[in-house]
Each structure stands twice: as C-alpha cells, then as structure tokens.
C-alpha cells in the first residue's frame, strides 16, 4: 500500500505529540487514570511503569508495547494539542503527590572542627565524637546538601522519596544520610519528631539539610540508644562498631566498620580536627 506524503506527515506529527506527552507526564511522579482506583502509573527511564495503588514495587511495561500505546492515548487525552505541541492540561489532578523538584537549600557548611566541637559540647566523649565525625565524613564528606540512595531504590519508594532538582528521586540526605524511605528509618523518625512527615518535599529537604537540627537529633538519638553509656569514654574501636551497627546500619557492617575506623582513629589522635578535610 502506497503511503502519501500527507499520511507520513500525520505519522510524524503523531510521534512528535506522543514524545511531548511523555516528556510532560515524565515530570509527574505518579499518575492515575480518572476512575481507576486500582492501578497507577509513571513514565521513567524512557518507558511506562505500573503498580497497584498502595504498593511500593513498580512493574516495568518496557516490553509491553500494547499497554504503552494505551497509556499514551489515555493519558495523552489529559493534554491539549496546539499546532502539534503538547501542553499540560489537567495532569496535576491525577497526580498523588506534588512533583515540582525541590531546590537544594543554601545553608552554611560545617567543617570537622566545628562538627566535633558541636558534638562534644553535649556528649563530652572524645572517642565517641571522633567516631561520629568520621562517619559523617564517609556518608556525606560533610556536605549537608549531599543526597543519595537514588535509582531503582528510590523509584521503588517514590511515594516517600524526594524529587531533588538536578538529582532526581533520592532517599537519603544530609551529614549522616538520614534515610526517609522506610517507616522506621532515621530520616523518617527525624521528620516525624519535627512534625514534618506531611510537609512538602521542599520543606522536608530544607530540614534534612539544616545542620543544627540534624546534629541535635543525632545527639538525642545517640543518648537514647546507648542507654546512658555514652558517658563512658570507651575505645575508638568500640564506639565505631557500635555506631555503624546501631546508627548507620549499612548493608555490610564489617566493611563499613573497617572503612571508618582509620579516620576515626586519626581524628581522635588529633584530639580536635584542625582542617575541614582528612588528608
């Protein structure tokens, strides 16, 4: 069958519109079709994903061309066409959470000496404070704007993750990378302690990068979890193992303990760190 130039132009225009529709919808975090109370969708990494509402795990539709075309068509009706360019219409009505990327706050940074002194002021435990500083160095390099645990991990928890401008979905933030993507993680507990669990992503990100609040919460948590033993000096080795297992709790305890110990010892030997970076 011969295809006319006009038909070719229509095909190209249709693909342009589909591309623009996907670009617009990709800016939204979670979408729901009107009247659908079971499934929800997102467009990420170049293809559609779906999951049951209330469930964290996303299902890829990358190889399901038929489903992708249906979603392009149905969700495409949520945009209006003007001269071949798709513009947002009522898409926001279908989104379960605001998706405007949160801007990285501009708080004053902190160096090793400042962090050590701030911790020691309340804890009065040299070795423990040295360990806490070393762990912050390994988690964030003392950059309160540091955000991690993105990619598939954050996508699977997109209902809790924060969409950070220039970074995408992230789950861990601040000096010690407080994680906010599980109900029991330290970041979630931190936000709840500040009555910020239901605040906007921007408000949450601001709090997670607020060094004074983050440090105060770390001190409070250490005191509570040690059951009073934080007053006992103990060795650097003892406190490093305790902190990794009870506060940071990474996937590989032994590896993290070994990685942090040399820097914790170095900070402790110097008594008070003299520079903002471990050489």
Describe the structure.
The protein is an alpha+beta fold and 279 residues long. The protein folds into two domains: 5-94, no CATH class; 112-269, Lysozyme. Helices cover 46% and strands 12% of the residues. It has ten helices and ten strands. Strands 1-2-3 form a three-stranded antiparallel beta sheet. The chain has a three-stranded antiparallel beta sheet with strand order 6-9-10. A hairpin with a 4-residue loop joins strand 9 and strand 10 (178-179). Residues 24-28, 78-98 and 273-279 have low confidence and may be disordered.
- Supply the helix-strand structural class: alpha+beta
The number of E-state strands comes to 10
Specify the CATH architecture of the largest domain: Orthogonal Bundle
Average predicted local confidence, pLDDT: 78
Concise summary:
By secondary structure, the chain is α+β, with helices and mostly antiparallel strands. It has helices at 5-26, 65-76, 112-123, 126-140, 151-155, 186-193, 201-208, 211-226, 236-248, 253-269; strands spanning 39-44, 47-52, 59-60, 79-82, 85-88, 147-148, 162-164, 168-170, 172-173, 178-179.
